Amino acid sequence: MESNGSVQPPDETDSPEWLTSSHGHYGSTANSMLSLASRPDGNPVVSRTRAHIIVAVLCYINLLNYMDRYSLAGVLLNIQLFFQLSDSIAGLLQTIFICSFLLVAPLFGYLGDRYNRTYIMVCGLLVWMVTATGSSFVSQSQFWLLLLLRGLIGIGEASFTTIAPTVIGDLFTGQKQSIMISLFTICMPFGSGLGYIVSSSVASHTGDWRWALRVTPILVLLGLILLLITCPDLPRGASVDQPTRPGSYWDDVKYLVKNKSYFWSTWGVTSLCFVIGALSFWMPSFLYRARVTQGLLAPCLVQPCDSTDSKIFGGVTLVTGFLGVIVSTILSRWLRPKMPNVDALICFADMAASLPCVFIVIFVAPSSIPATYVFIFISELLLFMNWPIIADMALYVVVPRRRSSAQAFQITLCHLLGDATSPYIIGAISDAINKSKLDVTEFYGQQYSFLVLPGILVLGALFFFITSRHLEKDRVAAQFSDEDSPPCDSTSQLPVQSNGEQKM
Hints:
Elements: H1 48-69, H2 71-74, H3 76-83, H4 87-112, H5 117-135, H6 143-169, H7 174-206, H8 215-230, H9 249-258, H10 260-294, H11 308-335, H12 342-364, H13 369-384, H14 386-396, H15 403-419, H16 422-434, H17 444-449, H18 452-468, H19 471-479
C-alpha cells in the first residue's frame, strides 16, 4: 500500500480472533499474525503438536537446571560441617558454579546463532550429567575437586540456558510466544523450590548430603533423549520473516550495546539476580541460625543437620514462583494494549515494592520465624513476577538473528555481577562481622550482611524505569525491519520500505 498520508490497518477479517496476537504486540508483526511461527512460504516451522512437545521438553530440562542449581543450598549446613567451611568459602560453591557461565555463555551465544542448536544443547547436557554425578563422590579432603566439578556443571547448563529461549522464539509468535516463555520461566522458581525440598529430604533420609546430588543426573538423561527425538534444527527468524544470515561477533556486540531497552534491562536483571542469588543460597541457613539464636534449636554439630527450613523455604519458593509468573503474565497481557511500556514498569514496581519486605525479613527473623516467612513469601512473589517479563523483553527487543548472542551476553553480565558474586560477598561480610570462621551457628554477621540487598533493589528499580522510556521504540525496531536500526514512520510505527511504501 502506498503511503498517502494515512495508514489503513491490515485486513484481519479472514483470521479467527484466537489466531491473532492482540494489537500486534510483543513477538508478532503486522504481516505475521499466526501464533505458530511460519516460514516465509506460509508453512509452519513444525506442526502445532510437535511445537508444544518441544516446549514441554525444554521446560522439563529447565526445571532440572534450577533443581540442580539449588540442591547444594538445600544441604549447605551439612556441607559446611563436612568440609569445615566458613561462610565466605561456602559461598564460593555457588560463585564457581555461576562463573563458569561467564566463560562459555558468549561462546554458546555465538555458536547458537550459527550452528545446530539441538546438538549444542545435547553436548552441554552430557557434560552436565557426567560432572554432576562425579561431584557426588568427592571425599572430605577433596573440596577443591567439588569446586572444579561445580564449575564444569555450569558449563553444561550454560549451553542450554543460552539457547533454549531462542528456540521458543522461533516456534511461536505474538501472545502465544509470551505464554510459552512464561511456562519456560515458571520452571525456574519451581525447580529451585524442588531443589531445596528434594536435596534436604534425600540427605535427611540417607544421612549423607552427597546422595542429594545424584537425583538430577538421572533425570537429565531422560531430557537429553527427548530433546534429540523431538527438536529439529529450526530456522532462525522464521516467526518474523527476517533474514537469518549471521553478522560478525563485533556487529552483535555493537548492536546490543546500542539497543537501550536491552542494555538497561540487562542491568536491571543483574540487580535482580544479585538479590535472588543471595537470598536463595543463604536463606535456609539464615533461618536455621535465627532459630538457634531464639533457642528453638541446638547448634548442629553432627550431620545431618535439621532441614526444616530448607523444606519450608523450598515450598515457599515453589508456590511464589508459580503465582508470580502467572500473575505477572496476566497483568502484562491485560495492560499492554493500554501501556506499551508496561513490562518495564511492572519490573520497576516489583523491585521497589520488595525493598521494605526484605528489610522486614532481615530484622524480624531474630524474634518471629512465622512473621519472617510471611514477608519472605511477599518479597519472593514480587521478585519472581519479573522473570517471565524479562525473558519476553529479551526476545522482542532484539532481532532474531542476534537473540542467542543477546541471551549469552545477558547471562554473562547478570551472573558476573549478580548471583555469581552475591553469595560470596554476603558470606565474606558475615565472616568479617562474626570474627569466627568455623562457627556455623553465628547469626548476626549474616543478618547485617543482608543489608547490602536493599541498595541493590533501588538500583534495579532505577534501571527498569530507564528501560520503560525506550521499550516501545526498540520493540518496533526489532520486529518491523530487516535492519538493525529500521527507519520508522513516527505516526504509524510501521516500517518504511526503500521505495516509500509501508509494509502492511
